[in-house]
Amino acid sequence: MAATYGRFTGKAGVCLSTLGPGALNFSTGAAYALLGAMPLVLISGQKGILRQKQGRFQIVDVVSSMTPLTKMARQIVSTATIPAIVREAFRVAQQERPGPIHLELPEDIAGEQAPDLPCIPPHPIELPAANPVALDRAAGLILDADRPLIMLGAAASRPRLTDALSDFVRRLRIPFFTTQMGKGAAAGGTNLYIGTAALSERDYVHQAVDRADLIVAIGHDTVEKPPFFMGPGGPTVIHIGYLPATVEEVFFPHAEVIGDVAHTLGQLADRLEGKLKNASALLPLREQILAHLADRATESRFPLTPQRIVHDVRQVMPDDGIVCLDNGMYKIWFARNYRTRFANTLLLDNALATMGAGLPSAMMAAMLFPQRRVLAVCGDGGFMMNSQEIETAVRLRLNLVVLIIQDNAYGMIRWKQAADGFADWGLSFGNPDFVKYAESYGAKGTRVETADGLAPALEAAFNAGGVHLASVPVDYSENQRVLIEELGRLAKSEGPRN
Fold this sequence. Notes:
The chain is of the alpha/beta class.
């Protein structure tokens, strides 16, 4: 929840825990924020360091365990150092690249009378501007391209960057696609969006990616699964980011423009606007690519196809409604098929990709935006990993709808095992009666039992207010049909890839 606060606002969320097992429970949240670049300050307790009346009871080296999961982990050993340490914690958490900070406060230090020390106030920090030489080089490469394409990555999805990105796209008129975590970074309505790379290759959007001779990668972070694979004979890639690119086997840009991304985009647009002869060369592929995403979106099969679930959710959610995804096979379908029109209206995690994150993420969204519709979309496996937080949501009187996509199995792992030819093993499990489960917490529950029942059930849940669980069965045979068979045929029909 605290990491999601940082993701929405750009300011560090804060969470507290006790020592030992409580502090170690921070591990997944810390890794979630570290890989997802979300500003976060974690504060945990510890037994006294001056005297230990209980010996080693519950004492583990939490600071050492947090060091690889955070940007900074520190034990406070004197009250006199608290103002400087706290100021530094928030500065480091929020500066690029954002991430988590851990502070450990031993109980005897916490019990000391602190001297009368003033807080250290924050001061404005301006991000450095990109070098004009790098800007000129990037502009020249873009001008020379015959089939340019823009990619918006995870670091493009910063609260302060939406206007600059949207303006850049409109001024240059180059079609763009997004990574999963870059989805929604630019405002809708440009008619230049051609899809989201929910897979690394052979998806419909890769028709454009494979034909591009230049890709402007804005904010790509290699913590995400590769949106495309670089290799010999592929397109020229320009990396635009706050920090230099992390060079990996699958990502090694040919040019970089490093600095304040908003300033960079404005400077590039000034150099290029009105001068690009081939800006829209790949745009004719847009309708063809997006049309595929409507396949089976209204099919009346029951249990529902993933496409139908995405379609019905999109019908119910207003443009500013927020959908928070947990992690499972449905995440790929939402990344591919769900159209966003405002920034940060489809939250997903393609970095740590931890199950159980969808419900608490949605709870924070509902707290921050009480007037907007907020929907958590969870698989049954992921939901049951943190389902007890329904009690928290009810106690806080949140307006929140939780959609549980039920297949009684770990669907994504089942798909991967089948794709690799492994036996279907260890993937099925039982579930509670989700309607009764919701009612036991004081929430409301609905079971979708017909093909046309999902959208009305969600609409009724939002209109009723409060916390509402709706469960819907899914037909995941579409995973095999679409994501293996059809995309395999697509690859064969296109011939060798660059």
